[in-house]
TrEMBL record:
Pfam families associated with the record: Pep_deformylase
Cofactor note: Binds 1 Fe(2+) ion.
Designated name of the protein: Peptide deformylase
Cofactor(s) for this UniProt protein: Fe(2+)
Lineage: Bacteria, Pseudomonadati, Bacteroidota, Flavobacteriia, Flavobacteriales
Length: 196
């Protein structure tokens, strides 16, 4: 089932999400719905807060990035078939050079800005079967994970922008929260007038 994606301005996007237990109700169904929702919106990642559920759960599928001609064969191979579920994740280390990449967010349609992030991360998490992993990722895979991880920490990519950039996009962000935007996927707007 395709779920509406919560738009910028909803308080759920600014909350630090809660851990879940192995017996979380209907987890398998939730994961199926989240993947379906992410694919319908042409995203490469989706966090539970983005569908209005403040739990430490996000998923990624970087396959679309693997077709980028500017990537080396090695980078493209790393992104091909990289589809994962992260439950109760904790980033243990962020290392390497900070580098800029233009990011967007399904909760903030039509805004794309350069965000600086570390090259490499070490992350501890549980997969969909509640098997624990500690792994290291670099490059675009690390960036997608960092972006989604920020969601479960109540951080949006716009929070990482300079104060000048934030001022420049303030009006656009206000319009998104009021539903004055058209996205080609279902959204839920916190400040939209009822009956629109």
């Amino acid at each position: 089932m395709i779920l509406p994606i919560v738009a910028y301005g909803d308080p759920v996007l600014k909350k630090k999400a809660k851990e879940i237990a192995k017996d979380y109700p209907k987890l398998e169904e939730l994961l199926e719905n989240m993947f379906e929702t992410m694919y319908a919106a042409h995203g490469v990642g989706l966090a539970a807060p983005q569908i209005g559920i403040p739990i430490r759960l996000f998923l990624v599928d970087t396959e679309p990035f693997s077709e980028d001609d500017e990537l080396s064969d090695n980078e493209a191979d790393q992104l091909k078939g990289f589809k994962k579920v992260f439950i109760n994740a904790t980033i243990l280390e962020e290392t390497g050079e900070e580098w800029a990449f233009t990011e967007g967010c399904l909760s903030i349609p039509d805004i794309r800005e350069d965000v600086f992030r570390n090259e490499t991360i070490k992350i501890n998490y549980f997969d969909e079967n509640f098997v624990e992993h500690t792994e290291i990722y670099s490059g675009l895979a690390a960036r997608v994970i960092q972006h989604e991880y920020d969601h479960i920490e109540g951080i949006l990519f716009t929070d990482k922008l300079s104060s000048l950039k934030k001022r420049l996009i303030k009006g656009k962000l206000a319009n998104i929260s009021k539903g004055k935007i058209s996205a080609d996927y279902r959204m839920r707007f916190p400040l939209a007038k009822k009956g629109r």
